[in-house]
Design brief:
There is one protein chain. By secondary structure, the chain is α/β, with parallel strands linked by helices. It has one domain: NAD(P)-binding Rossmann-like Domain (Rossmann fold), CATH 3.40.50. 40% of the residues lie in helices and 16% in strands. It has ten helices and 13 strands. A four-stranded parallel sheet has the order 3-4-5-10, with helices on both faces. It has a three-stranded mixed sheet with strand order 11-8-13. The protein has a two-stranded parallel sheet with strand order 1-2. The relative contact order is 0.15. The protein binds uridine-diphosphate-N-acetylglucosamine (UD1). Uridine-diphosphate-N-acetylglucosamine (UD1) binds next to α6 and β7.
């Protein structure tokens, strides 16, 4: 939303605030509190705003939770998406951008993984998103709408100007958890699995700075508008992986302190390694990542963590 606003696109936000925060939306951006599956509300917003494109970020993201509660994920990520796509089609919205995921690949047959490799998710989270990709493909073949399915790898960091960042309590993302530990909000980081078939035995991921990912959305929108006959499915990652140990070491070198680490069993639903082949996004969009550096990603995540602490103490809240 900030990237769209910075690029001078008119934007309105719909969020049920289940995990989002009202403070994340600036006062000059129209905000609607509600659910993407509320067809009446979505129709009203599209008509009020003259909406020409939907960017659909809403959904549940915690992989192990999807293993424990799959129906929640099929409701929030698949059924709610279906309702939103239907509302867009009924209102004649011509462009739709969807937050998909590298979890659609499951355990990739090769690394780095490219878009055409088999999609065999190993957790309900990945399936719930892959089903929505399928719906979009079918809908784009039947109706005058094109779509961008952006397969996010591991999103991390925060807005470089510290205007926004991950704020939900009970975070599970590695970099978020690690910066919470580095800033004293938690006392240790559990390493889930040290016996993977990776160079140091811990899981390997392709961490992408949230602002580079946001920039990719703006460019994808422009490409959908320029080529209404074409839809896009693209990996969003830098094409290089870091292990859990390398991430924790990088946080330590930013702070000059050492995070306490514990070794725990593998987490259900976790593949050993997920690294993107970014050839397609590089060939399709004029995308020039600005923050492809693990230290920068961590520094921005850290700055946001300090900002959150200031906001909490201003509210007199220690939580
Ligand atoms: C993340 C996203 C998911 C996205 C996917 C794409 C979350 C919860 N999920 O999954 O939405 O589609 O990337 O690949 O962010 N780890 C630890 N200790 C921790 C936390 C994590 O060792 O406390 C390890 C995990 O086992 C994994 C790596 O760090 O190897 C990254 O985990 P995490 O940040 O949770 O993201 P993913 O599960 O990869």
């Amino acid at each position: 939303m900030l990237a769209l606003r910075d690029a001078a696109w008119p934007v309105a936000v719909l969020d049920n605030l289940a995990t989002g925060f009202r403070f994340a939306v600036p006062d000059d951006v129209s905000f609607y509190e509600g659910d993407v599956s509320d067809a009446e509300l979505v129709a009203q917003i599209i008509s009020e705003q003259g909406t020409r494109a939907v960017m659909h970020f809403a959904g549940s993201v915690v992989v192990p939770e999807s293993v424990a509660d799959p129906l929640k994920f099929y409701a929030n990520n698949t059924a709610a998406s279906r309702a939103l796509i239907e509302a867009a089609v009924k209102a004649g919205v011509p462009h739709f951008i969807f937050s998909s995921t590298a979890a659609t690949y499951g355990v990739p047959e090769a690394s780095p993984v490219s878009e055409d490799m088999p999609k065999e998710p190993i957790n309900p989270y990945g399936w719930s998103k892959l089903m929505t990709e399928r719906m979009l493909a079918d809908v784009a073949a039947a109706h005058p709408i094109n779509y961008g399915a952006l397969r996010y790898f591991n999103v991390a960091g925060a807005d470089p100007q510290a205007r926004s960042g991950q704020s939900t309590a009970g975070a599970t993302h590695l970099i978020k958890v690690a910066v919470e530990a580095a800033t004293g909000k938690r006392d240790r980081v559990a390493i889930f699995g040290t016996d993977y078939d990776t160079p140091d035995g811990t899981g390997v991921r392709d961490y992408i700075h949230v602002s580079d990912l946001a920039a990719a959305h703006v460019l994808a929108l422009e490409a959908l508008i320029a080529h209404p006959e074409r839809s896009l499915t693209m990996n969003c990652g830098y094409g290089r992986g870091f292990s859990v140990t390398e991430v924790l070491d990088a946080v330590d070198s930013v702070t000059g302190a050492r995070i306490t680490r514990t070794h725990e069993p593998r987490r259900p639903g976790d593949p050993a390694s997920l690294v993107s082949d970014p050839s397609r996004i590089r060939a399709t969009l004029p995308w020039q990542p600005q923050y492809d550096d693990l230290g920068t990603i961590i520094a921005h995540a850290m700055a946001w963590e300090h900002r959150l602490a200031e906001m909490r103490s201003a509210k007199g809240d220690n939580g």
